[in-house]
Input
Amino acid sequence: MAQRTLRRKIERFLWRKPRAITEPLVVRWTAIAITFTFIGLFLVLPLAAIFTQALASGLTAYFRSLWDTDTLSAIRLTLITAAVAVPVNLVFGVAASWAIAKFEFLGKSVLTTLIDLPFAVSPVISGTIYVLFFGLHGYLGPWLKAHNIEIVFAVPGIVLATVFVTFPFVARELIPLMQAQGTEEEEAALTLGAGGWQTFARVTLPNIKWGLIYGVILCNARAMGEFGAVSVISGHIRGLTNTMPLHVEILYNEYNFVGAFAVASLLTVVAMITLVLKSFAEWKFKEESVQAAEEVEGLPQ
Amino acid sequence: MKLVLKQPSILPGFGLTLGFSLTYLSLVVLIPLAGLFARTATLSWERFWHTVTDARLLAAYRLSFGASLAAACLNLFFGLIVAWVLVRYRFPGRRLLDALIDLPFALPTAVAGIALTALYTDTGWVGRWLALLNIKVAFAPLGVVVALTFIGLPFVVRTLQPVLEDLDPEIEEAAASLGAWRRHTLRRVVLPELWPVMLTGFALAFARALGEYGSIVFISGNMPMKTEIVPLLMVMKLEQYEYAEATAIAVAMLLISFTLLLIINLLQWWSGQRHAAVR
Amino acid sequence: MSIEALGISKHFGAFAALKDVSLRVETGELVALLGPSGSGKTTLLRIISGLEKADAGAGMVRLHGEDVTTKGVGYRRVGFVFQHYALFRHMTVFENIAFGLRVKRRSQRASRQQIREKVEQLLRLVQLEWLAGRYPAQLSGGQRQRIALARALAIEPQVLLLDEPFGALDAKTRQELRRWLRRLHAELHVTSVLVTHDQEEALEVADRVAIMNAGRMEQFGTPAEVFHHPANEFVMNFLGHVNVFHGRVEGGRAILGPMEIDYSGRPHATTVPARGLVRPYDLEIEHHPNGKPGFAATVCHINSAGPRVKIDLTAESGEAVHVELAHERFRALALEAGQQVFVVPREVNVFVDEGQG
Output
């Protein structure tokens, strides 16, 4: 008797769908076990490895390797890069999705596809195209040199490459959301006498808030972590053009494993904060999208 | 019929936002990319062909394609199981697992690279057990597969999840009510619905793997003819200021990526059509 | 405040949504634009509001005599109630209603206290005072509808425009809101235009009804006029169930399916195709011919649940005929399925094909 209630409890715990359309218990347990193993092996173990390696020589060594002038300047450069790339792409994302989601015009689908283009390009190519333009042997190289402007192997190049690889993040989250929300609320605001900016700031922006934050979080994570594109264009000058991921590489290649993993651990913390924020934003963002769908269908009476 | 460039609308800001978007898109993406193609055009056809079919590069293609394919296949198989488990079953830790899936998106590739290398060298937590079986992962082609599996892991899961959530349980119930065994229902009813999405996820993971650089340079060991990938050779050309050769390789890679992108779009369009027909 | 929309044409790409339509609404009137979907009624409403522009040079909109054709939607001060309400989902009911007052230029803006009083007064008007702090997602459809109306009224609009205001509501709520809107209009007397595809709604609520079809206005008149004197076949067909008898007119007679009646509208001998339209309650059932024109038919099905008895018959010539009878008459006749009877029309509207004969 007790065994049966226990079994029922387990069953209720495991089954969401009615009995007729789920798999036998053994299959389910096996699938769950595979999932845990796969994710454990590929995602959890690497995380654990990073922190173990970083702390291999103790806490003092860990903090000493972080409190290094080159490391600090790498952190500063990474923050600067993200601080430029994210806002620029945010403004672009909002502008592009306003034009695409709220208006009908010729070539709209082409534009939408072009926005996703940077995702289809290998990061190293993203860096290369700017080297070709601004590098010493590039189209604008000689002119830049004559005017003493440094882009390649300097901070502007790093920022440009980062802007390129993070280009689509905000726009691709906002376009479908704004399309789902339609234009009725904006029209209502206009009939009530609101101006263009008032309509955008008071009606549109609050409606897309979470989608926007979601896009910014992803954009920021990529901006701070980009390696390939930045590596091509930075020139790896210690203390000057090294971002955190590049600094990890340098330390690693110098066999300074504690230092490499210490910097890596900082980036990992950023990544984990990103995941937490993302989950939260996603949850809010879903509410926004669901509400948009309900408005259209005209739900509960 | 006259061509309508834009449907009239009373909402403001169309000119401003579209103008800004187009300018920014052109400056940041389109013109630099066009410059790449223009630069390749300075090469003669023979030189181009010679560059992109160099023996060392051919070995790199083989590794890049082979490892990407293997990783995408692994991700397809495990991704299906993971997505199914996350959508259909309830168990403790499910939300945590779900959030973790995106780790490869959030974790810088260089960090992933050194972490995986540390795990899979002969003295690493995993590597030392594999060494007993005489399997070498780090500094071998297998290491590239491992890194690419990590990188591509979210793609299949994240493309499958929403589709599984939307899958109407009535269809499965209908199959069950018609007397189908569960595994028949899965094979004949559920799997055909998922094929287009699985292919999309597969293609996304594959495309991403082909261009990946950051994580691989650490784990592969970069041995000529053995563990060099295509993006690495491109970077090497660039570092030797052989711009034309570098762009030739880049163009070859881009053409491959665009073809893949086209296939993905066609797949999505095709599955969209099928779904529209049913609903 | 009167509304005049004169000679309005509107194209969407190659599709002509409105073809030279004119509408004049008198001050204080409530006019319904009635028509099937795609008839252009919503487009006309949106052009009046300024949300849509008529084709260049094709049409003029005047509000109380002032030409506002080129003026923007903000200038026109129209209260527009959207089909799906378009309430601002992230604002409370209070904030929704206050929106129009708060976005005014500082010089014209009322004080906080005045705005609060105004919103409370509007909430009392729509009888939803207790919902001020709720969000739109927490309201029922009928409540959202009334809040949308209150929000539109907050800016003291010159005219009130309602796009399918009860379209997304269930039948019972529709009924209630319809009467409530009628009372509200009697109280406020704001010039109003309402778009609907529901003929019952239009006839019940409006002072005058404009019936639209395929981008044209078919008829414009009081509910009684359009119902009892339909200008054409479309109007009659759209305003309720009809039996259609296909046939022809010639030499002062109309031969329509199984029956033949006098038709004075066209005395010439030429034959012209025509149709006779008869409402189900304008058909009488007799056991035997009584000398009036009519036709023999067989009773197929009787449905006596409802205010009137609905009877399906088949004419000798094979056409299906629907008749509605009062319950007393039905009992007096003692009809049963399968019975042979004689059907006599009281009133037939004959429509002759134009441009022929």
Summary: The first helix of chain A runs from residue 2 to 14. Residues 56-296 of chain A form a domain with the MetI-like fold fold (CATH 1.10.3720.10). Chain A has one domain: 56-296. The radius of gyration of chain A is 25 Å.
